[in-house]
Inverse folding.
């Protein structure tokens, strides 16, 4: 019984350490398409973050590098 | 026969031992292939931006240039200006219209080492009555077969606040932000991003020109104004989750949800969906919808019961309870795919957002109605970006 338990635990540990990346580099052509970018034009994204920070109470976690607008 | 069985068992044992030894090495080799992390693209963007709404027009240029050297270090610089004219409703009732310019210069560098990018940045922003400098550091690391990217950032801002027409007044404010982001490839067509950011502010955080209303029976219209007063500290936390999906016919669908909460009592949610649809080799069209909603700060009131009614007083519409709905549309035309002059390609872009703001407890004092009967304020704004992007 003890052996079986140890065996199961070892098997689980083995399965944990052998989770392999499931999307190979050659399968990422669609993800590499420029339309699949969270922030395509950095100047545009930075500007929209600035406009929203000035008009809304919320700030932070806007994505694309973050940082404040340094303005009042 | 027994000897043959023994030999088979021995072979199995040897193979098992070999696999046990080699598998972790293979695993490491498969999960950590070399050289996939790359620096951001070499590009320059020349943009005109315009904001028009609520009695205020803000426009100006933004020029961004980024160039890498030996695929190891990428440096960038940005010049940005806001030319502001008009007056928002917050100051319209108590002050005259104004015009001013804010100029901002940023410089930064990103250094690529194996699967890690280290970034530093500095921004200097100048107005007649406000100076701000911000320092940033960040680190971004790819792992798990480059399916996962973890990035962290820290920023420190140091501001000096002044008031036009008042040579005596000067105060300061400091800001710090910590950011953590995880981007994960989920399938061959789906990518997800989760981010959290905490910001702390300390110092003079209100606008030195804005006022609050309080009831005053001695005044003809029933109220008077006094200067607003904010707490000198503010802590906020925001978390966002984003996902992007590549549709079967080459188009992208993007969704985002963000939650925000701060020590001033503001809770905010926003959600956004956007869709990108390319047509042919040159055109890309975008459509987006965004909804934002927030509660008011604890010390906000449209009108206070009497003068100095409490320690902290605010009537900024940005601290009131409100929601906004944005509809965006845009087009991008790319050209010169075979390269021209020193550039590898270029694109011309035009994006417009139409934003409708609806305030829930901020009255329109300029409407001229009697106290208590003023309509709630609302306004629409147009946010425009027209830019040329060139890659080299």
């Amino acid at each position: 019984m003890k052996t079986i338990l140890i065996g199961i635990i070892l098997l689980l540990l083995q399965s944990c350490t052998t989770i392999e990346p499931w999307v190979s580099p050659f399968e990422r052509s669609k993800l590499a398409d420029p339309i699949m970018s969270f922030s395509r034009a950095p100047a545009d994204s930075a500007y929209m973050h600035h406009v929203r920070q000035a008009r809304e109470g919320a700030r932070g976690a806007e994505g694309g590098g973050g940082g404040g607008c340094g303005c009042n | 026969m027994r000897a043959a069985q023994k030999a088979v068992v021995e072979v199995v044992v040897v193979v098992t031992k070999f696999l046990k030894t080699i598998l972790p090495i293979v695993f490491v080799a498969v999960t950590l292939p070399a050289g996939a992390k790359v620096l951001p693209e070499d590009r320059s963007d020349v943009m005109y931006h315009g904001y028009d709404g609520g009695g205020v027009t803000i426009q100006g240029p933004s020029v961004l240039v980024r160039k890498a050297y030996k695929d190891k270090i990428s440096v960038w610089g940005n010049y940005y200006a806001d030319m502001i004219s008009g007056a928002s409703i917050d100051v319209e009732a108590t002050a005259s219209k104004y015009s001013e310019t804010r100029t901002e210069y940023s410089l930064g560098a990103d250094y690529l080492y194996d699967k890690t990018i280290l970034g530093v940045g500095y921004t200097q922003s100048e107005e007649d009555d406000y100076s701000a400098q911000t320092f940033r550091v960040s680190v971004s690391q790819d792992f798990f077969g480059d399916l996962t990217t973890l990035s962290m950032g820290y920023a420190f801002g140091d501001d000096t606040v002044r008031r036009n027409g008042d040579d005596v007044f000067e105060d300061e404010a400091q800001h710090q932000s910590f950011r953590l982001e995880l981007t994960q490839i989920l399938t061959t067509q789906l990518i997800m991003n989760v981010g959290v950011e905490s910001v702390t502010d300390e110092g003079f955080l209100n606008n030195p020109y804005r006022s609050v209303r309080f009831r005053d029976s001695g005044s003809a219209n029933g109220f008077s104004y006094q200067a607003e007063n904010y707490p000198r500290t503010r802590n906020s936390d925001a978390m966002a989750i984003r996902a992007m999906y590549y549709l079967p016919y080459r188009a992208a669908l993007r969704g985002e949800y963000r939650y925000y909460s701060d020590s001033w009592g503001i809770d905010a949610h926003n959600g956004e969906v956007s869709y990108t649809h390319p047509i042919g080799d040159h055109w890309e069209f975008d459509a987006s919808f965004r909804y934002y909603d927030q509660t008011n700060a604890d010390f906000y009131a449209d009108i206070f019961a009497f003068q100095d009614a409490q320690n902290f007083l605010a009537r900024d519409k940005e601290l009131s309870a409100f929601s906004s709905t944005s509809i965006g549309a845009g087009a991008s035309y790319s050209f010169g795919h075979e390269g021209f002059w020193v550039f590898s390609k270029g694109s011309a872009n035009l994006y417009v957002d139409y934003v409708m703001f609806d305030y829930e407890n901020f009255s329109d004092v300029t409407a001229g109605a009697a106290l208590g009967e003023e309509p709630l304020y609302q306004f629409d704004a147009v946010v425009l970006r027209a830019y040329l992007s060139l890659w080299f």
